[in-house]
Specification:
Shape: rod-shaped
Distance between the termini: 117 Å
Helix content: over 70%
């Protein structure tokens, strides 16, 4: 069975439930098997193991393993894509937080300088007030 790469998701879901040519032939051989006649391969209970030769079981197991590995790679790829998206989002968040930190540090510096200036003015005004009070006390007798 050949699949086009342009198939839709819905087509992909249907393909997962379709039988391979070998599976269809195996089913026909089971249907055409007449009671009383020996099965095509040896086996004690007529289970799938007895219907398929060891080579067929090996090939089926290999195919099953390939499909499992393919699904595992798909899950890994999707997980890596999700991690990449998360990494990019966290990098953007980190850059924004760094910018906010820089703005906050700049504002802190400006406010610290303004506070120092106001403290200096307060000391100078206190000294001026003290001098004026001293002058008033000498001018105005009590």
């Amino acid at each position: 069975m050949h699949l086009s790469k342009a198939m839709t998701f819905q087509d992909h879901e249907l393909v997962q439930f379709m039988l391979t040519e070998t599976e269809i032939q195996d089913l026909f051989s089971l249907i055409n098997h007449h009671p009383g006649s020996p099965p095509s391969s040896s086996g004690s209970q007529g289970s799938n193991r007895s219907v398929y030769s060891s080579e067929e079981r090996k090939l089926r197991r290999m195919q099953s393993n390939r499909e499992s590995a393919r699904r595992s790679r798909g899950r890994k790829k999707k997980h890596m894509e999700n991690l990449t998206v998360q990494l990019n989002r966290l990098r953007v968040d980190n850059r924004e937080l760094k910018n906010q930190l820089l703005v906050t540090m700049h504002q802190h510096l400006l406010l610290s300088l303004e506070n120092e200036k106001l403290c200096s003015e307060s000391i100078a005004l206190s000294a001026t007030l003290s001098d004026l009070c001293q002058i008033l006390r000498t001018i105005l007798p009590q």
